From TrEMBL:
<protein>
    <submittedName>
        <fullName>HORMA domain superfamily</fullName>
    </submittedName>
</protein>
<dbReference type="GO" id="GO:0016035">
    <property type="term" value="C:zeta DNA polymerase complex"/>
</dbReference>
<dbReference type="GO" id="GO:0006974">
    <property type="term" value="P:DNA damage response"/>
</dbReference>
<feature type="domain" description="HORMA">
    <location>
        <begin position="10"/>
        <end position="193"/>
    </location>
</feature>
<keyword id="KW-0539">Nucleus</keyword>
<keyword id="KW-1133">Transmembrane helix</keyword>
<feature type="transmembrane region" description="Helical">
    <location>
        <begin position="12"/>
        <end position="34"/>
    </location>
</feature>
<keyword id="KW-0472">Membrane</keyword>
<dbReference type="GO" id="GO:0005634">
    <property type="term" value="C:nucleus"/>
</dbReference>
<keyword id="KW-0812">Transmembrane</keyword>
<dbReference type="InterPro" id="IPR045091">
    <property type="entry name" value="Mad2-like"/>
</dbReference>
<dbReference type="Pfam" id="PF02301">
    <property type="entry name" value="HORMA"/>
</dbReference>
<dbReference type="InterPro" id="IPR003511">
    <property type="entry name" value="HORMA_dom"/>
</dbReference>
<keyword id="KW-0227">DNA damage</keyword>
Length: 216
């Protein structure tokens, strides 16, 4: 990869994490986790979106999204999940962004083309209320990144910001609801929902330590 390709790959990565910040905020708003007054309407990519008013909430979403940038540039990020948990710390719903970036073709796409493609995801999210489940009492949520390989401890400051999660996993395959997909160059992106199957037992398992996701 030459310097120009590297710069273009960096631009694609920045566009993706900027989009991710907006999309995560829209998901939290869509779920009704906070009062609607906790958000304000803004425009992004010529789409009406939501922006968190509370500084701590806004900073958490921003740092979670932009903390992924060095790993996205290296092609390490496989999935980003917004996970909602019950009071017992059991996942009840997961919004999954599955992504692949091809650095070698990053220079072949105009930024406007990529933004136009990502814009369709935001439009779809804004009308996806019917797809989500009601939240249980005393629930919580977090952003989790699933990496293709784990960064070495002490190898970078960015890696030290992420810790292995002990999130419980469903024993049975989840029910998957597709929301939107993009299959193009340099970015392939899928957005889908995961819910536990009706036959899911209550005794969940913890993830294999060798393949644990990383969570901020």
């Amino acid at each position: 990869m030459n310097l120009k390709d590297d710069n273009q790959s960096g631009e694609v990565g920045r566009t993706v994490v900027e989009f991710m910040e907006v999309a995560i905020t829209m998901i939290v708003f869509l779920k009704g986790f906070y009062p609607s007054a906790a958000f304000e309407r803004r425009r992004y990519m010529n789409v009406v979106v939501q922006r968190a008013r509370h500084p701590e909430l806004r900073d958490y979403i921003h740092s979670a999204a932009y903390g992924l940038l060095p790993f996205i540039r290296k092609g390490l990020v496989e999935r980003v999940a917004v996970i909602f948990f019950s009071e017992d710390n059991v996942p009840v719903e997961r919004f999954i962004f599955k992504l692949t970036i091809n650095p070698s073709s990053a220079a072949l796409v105009e930024e406007g083309q990529l933004e136009f493609a990502l814009r369709s995801f935001l439009i779809k999210l804004s009308v996806s209320k019917s797809l989500v489940k009601p939240l249980p009492q005393n629930c919580r949520w977090e952003v989790t990144a699933y990496l293709r390989s784990l960064p070495q401890v002490g190898s970078s400051k960015e890696g030290e910001l992420w810790i292995p999660t002990d999130t419980k996993q469903w024993q049975n395959p989840p029910v998957i609801t597709p929301v939107k997909s993009l299959n193009s160059e340099p970015l392939c992106l899928q957005l889908y929902l995961e819910h536990p199957s009706l036959s899911q037992p209550h005794n969940l398992v913890k993830p294999n330590a060798a393949h644990e996701p990383q969570v901020r």
